[in-house]
Amino acid sequence: MTTVYVRYDSDGTILEIFSRDQPNLDLTPHDDQEPAIAKYLRDPHGLEDRFPILRKWQLWLAALELEPPIFKADVLSVIGGMAGLSARERETVRIMVEEAQEYSREDPRMDLLAIAMGIPPNQMDDLWKWAAEFRPL
Hints:
This protein has 137 residues and is of the alpha+beta class. The protein folds into two domains: 3-44, no CATH class; 51-132, no CATH class. The chain has seven helices and five strands; from the N terminus they run βββααβαααβαα. It has a three-stranded antiparallel β-sheet, covered by helices on one side. A two-stranded antiparallel ribbon has the order 4-5. The protein is elongated, with a radius of gyration of 20 Å. The relative contact order is 0.12.
């Protein structure tokens, strides 16, 4: 437990968090483990709310729901044939796809994959948000 000092806007939205009190600023002390404070410290730009992190199984189950379904083996094949990327870049993308346990929509390699698989960016955004709702049985 560490005390942090939070500055809010008039709507109660966190603007800044400081590790110590600041002169001439209206700050409120909080425990850094409080849920809203911990979330802000982890994700100050709110990207998790926009595009949550997907677990490996969420991404691949969502891919199977497309019409036609996209199989992981097909994605890996596309990666191997990506023109314009060096062998090292293709291997980096392959490792990111095959070995990652979680995926971030903001990772620019996700856009590369979407383009390679013929998925427009807006459809990828929608697919991502939909996949984030998947829950284990």
